[in-house]
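Troubleshooting log. The previous structure file for this entry was overwritten by mistake, so regenerating from the original sequence record. Sequence copied from the archived sheet and checked twice against the printout by T.R.
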Amino acid sequence: MTRSEPECWFLDPYPVDSHRFFRDQWLHRSRYKWSVAELPPRAWRWRLRFGGAVLAEQIVAGGGRPDIVVCTSMCDASQVRARLNCPVVVYWHENQLTYRRDSPDLLGCALRHASTLLATRWHLINSRTHRAQFAAALERHMRGWDTDSRIAVVPERVRAAHVIPPPVPVPDTPGHVGDREPLLLWNHRWCPEKRPEWLLDVVRVLHRQPELSWRLAVVGSQNEATPAVFDAIRACAGPRLVAFGHQPRERYHALVREAAIVLSTSAEENFGISVAETIAHGALPVLPDLPVYREFWNGVAHFFDTPQAAGRILSRLLQTRAWADAAGREARRRCVAESCSADQQATSLDEIVAAALDAKGATVQILF
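Regenerated output below.
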């Protein structure tokens, strides 16, 4: 007896907020029915090394017989495919080679990523910037490896990955900022690579101009030891700080809708979901000059190279009320709709799943 619908599984051994956002926005709109297997988002080295095997084993133990699996790049896809014997599609939110350049674990990470890239030909990635940087990093790490022609295909697998940005819901109209003091929203994970020390410098620049009217929300998940600089940010912002730390879902969404300006200070990004979802509501982005931000927001954002420059940009925007321009808010909403609207991206993701299911019966070796 054949099943009328394919059994589809989504696996993520390290489901941080951005991963869950991607998963929920897609699966809610997908034409397929999905089961989800995940582990708590901690011990990233262990998850990258064994998470895929553990989740695959859980599926088998529960009687699952997947026709297809989609997993994040925190899985070793070779483990998943070997245990479940079905097509595997990998979504690359991040890679550890460009993310942790100084880590002693880079060789192990490179080997895990190579194993995943060789295990399947179905690879999706969130931006052209990420794809180019990841392929270049793999080539650097593979120099000196004793490779044959089959292993040498690894960087080419990255370059052949389909670029599908995360699905971002776009409201029919921009959010309403109201008549209150404009809200500056910094909504990122509380970790060193988001450069919270730059945020402190920005707040200090604004604090020295008491004539400016503004409020600040500093929100995000705290999966690692919180840098001490956040205490200094809270002290410097004082009564202007209206939200601090991880927020309940409804409160967070209210802040996103209300934000006049969304601020990032990140040292690196592969996409930036929190920025995109806030721009979708019309917020004016003030962003570090990173290639991926240029890729998506070059026509609508203000870019800076130093926190002092960010402070000057914010001062000017607050003085001129540029953030309140209705036409500008609508243009920013349309920019998100054109590049990564949830309905459009969910359809693109479903099409990849359909292609992988259609190819399921093909004879495929572990090395292509």
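The domain at 8-167+342-358 is CATH 3.40.50.2000 (Rossmann fold). Archived copy saved in two places this time.
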